[in-house]
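protein under study:
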Amino acid sequence: MTDARALAAAVRAGERTAREVTEEALDAIAAGDGALHAFLLVTPDDARAQADLVDAAVTQGRDPGPLAGVPIALKDNLCTRGIPTTCGSKILEGWRPPYDATVVGLLRDAGAITVGKTNMDEFAMGSSTENSAYGPTLNPHDTGKVPGGSSGGSAASVAAGFTPLGLGSDTGGSIRQPAALCGVVGMKPTYGRVSRYGLVAFASSLDQIGPFATNVADAALLFDVLAGHDGRDSTSLSSKPELTVPGLEDGIDGIRVGVCRNLIDGCAPDVVARVQEAAETLAAAGATVEEIRVPEFAYGLSAYYLIAPAEASSNLARYDGVRYGLRVDGDDAAAMNTATRTAGFGAEVKRRIMLGTYALSAGYYDAYYVQAQRVRTLVMQAFDRAYGSIDVLLGATAPTTAFDLGAKVDDPMAMYMNDICTIPSNLAGHPALSIPFGTGVDGLPVGVQLLAPALEEALLFRVARVLEAAAPEGVRSP
């Protein structure tokens, strides 16, 4: 399937119909997803109905939007009216939200065709999509490997060519890390730049919705469609976002790039080599490149794994067997609540709820949660100092290429270490992007990560476009 911009242009010009493009995507999913399990639910009837509306608009001479007829995959923690939204959990099996997430409405207003809901780590808690209650998603480049997580289904859908675009959510790297492992572009916007209304919450001060695409320009276009203020989200930024697509080809002459050793040290040698090649590419394109260190990033992982579980323990308290979702009967309300949560939540979700509840409990709140928030402030201050002398940070997205299925499921600490390069941006609320840049020694994709100050998405995409134009060949086609 061709890129999103070309598809939309062809549909808007009447050269192709949205219905035809949609059928191609549905056929690709039907033919290939049995081997990958990227989707939890495919919605062919709804997709065809959306496509027919786009085609009707074209026939009537109306502009159907910048994403006219473009199929897109939605992570299954984005509410879709009347369509099951499970968050990869048994506790929400069969739940049909009574409303659409803001981003879903924006996609449809832009003419995009939502074709289904993708697999994910349960409640977005994981780095491999192996924590889904409905089974793992496999990496399209090697089905013995994980696709990353928690947005592994959306990343796999784009990498496999099922859909040109996907949406994920990023709490500690859940867009960027699977993008790196699957060899696609994945971007986390500034916190508050894209509405979280209708995103089922994991950690409310960290969660952010963002795009997956096969190329930088498509990711930028999708971001431009999604960005903006939403009065239904109290954390939504009121400022008007800068469009990123118009400046994509402006180059990076004079841009100051800091190669962050703290986002490289400890990574596999083949990943480090790709980051170094990316730095050389940016220097050759006119950027000023220097090596810097931000020691405070080393504390990010510990702070994150107190803050995020604490917020999760609060957010997931609503799944009590009373209002919606799974209910397991008991002799009284307390027994019913306990039985429901025991049966409905998987092991990783239970682990994080217990960790978060402990961190918030009397006698430990100051020692753990408050201290973690202080460390978060130190990370934010460290970013501010770094951006005083550089414009963009460069580092690895993930420490390794895609790892074997099952390799880390029994070792939570080893799994958590996959987030070590991505977490700092979430703690600070800054935008960051992963772009494919060559392969590792195993022939699997390597992603390099770009980080920028708050609201500098346009700069982030400009730098990414330069890397994309010079990216090494060699990623195996799925």
